[in-house]
Amino acid sequence: xxxHTDGVPGKAWVVVFAGxxxxxxxxxxxxxSVWKGVxxxxxxxxxxxxxxxxxxxxxYLTDAQGxxxxxxxxxxxxxxxxxxxxxxxxxxxxxxxxxxxxFLAAGCIIAGLMKSYTGLIxxxxxxxxxxxxxxxxxxxxxxxxxxxxxxxxxxxGLVVGGYGGAALYIAPLAKYLIEDYGISGSFIxxxxxxxxxxxxxxxxxxxxxxxxxxxAPKLSAASAAATAKKQxxxxxxxxxxxxxxxxxxxxxxFVGSAQSGLLVIANAAPMLSKTAGKLEFFIANAWLLASFxxxxxxxxxxxxxxxxxxxxxxxxxxxxxxxxxLFLLATPYIMQTGNVPLLFLAVGIAxxxxxxxxxxxxxxxxxxxxxxxxxxxxxLVFLGxxxxxxMPLIGGYIKDATGSYDLAFYISATVLIxxxxxxxxxKRPK
Length: 430
Prior knowledge:
The chain is mainly α. The protein has helices at 10-26, 32-39, 42-46, 63-91, 93-114, 117-136, 139-144, 152-202, 221-230, 238-241, 245-276, 280-284, 287-311, 313-337, 340-369, 374-381, 383-387, 390-402, 406-425. The longest helix has 51 residues, at 152-202. The mean pLDDT is 87.
């Protein structure tokens, strides 16, 4: 095997970048607000109107209906991370990635062909969620096995950065496909594209050979002892892990950090349309906020992963969480004043915090419970992310009832602050 200067074989980096490519397809979830912007019209939905023209046959939806497929997709994604982790730990990452890609592709095509609210729930919600859960469980544990604990935050950040960054290209591509080929054409076209990419990239994922030892950093005796103190020497099984209170704390920390980002992700395009008021450019290009969010989401994963390796996971979680909570509290005011640059800043911070937590939680899980059973163990911790989807669903009902998301932002900020406090008291199980 060819080696890089840090002693890590070249194959390890091939696995990292193949994992990013798989996640760049699975991350269609983060561009959902582009479809929601076209589907949601409460007055027409209440009147039972059906679309005409290029989208003939599609129904209009209420805000709550427009969030159901997204919510279901996230919840099922989280549930299927558990069998996905089992598949990764037992059969290797190629099997999981390929299966996941095919389920997601089938789901997109089903949603496009059915042209209905039910089709969105079955295709995007159920099939999409299954595909994402099985597929997403494969790349991160496979990549982490090649690297030592001192690089866990960075490597997890790079691999999951693909998922976060997906909205960067899927949001404008989806807008173009919807305009030229309709809602159905956009789902079917993307489904075929995802199947091809995930099957090819999935074949490049691999575990290290038997007996492989990840290179350790060149450290002084004192720093080596300090690093060892933060890591577990024991590889915990899932049944051992679930007997510790720290496991439940990690799940709740995931709920807290995920729900605030998911609330913003689900509504990014409509939020920009509302804030922009009479600014024609932003109303016509509301996808820009979703795409910008995708870029920051990806950067937040890599950036937070890097500095969490340096300042410690708990400190990184606290810094990200408190700043994001302050901006969530300010978001209703920013939207009322029509300040578009400030809205981009607030959304950027929400996406950075959210992306950062998706790099830190697999690293937290490996630090607390070891790398050997990470696929399955992280699948269980990941349930917290799925529960975070309750917030955008609640937000949809609040919007339908009150005409605005203000109350949802205040509730979300409070939950995030509670999660930061929980993080401060959670230490590695002995």
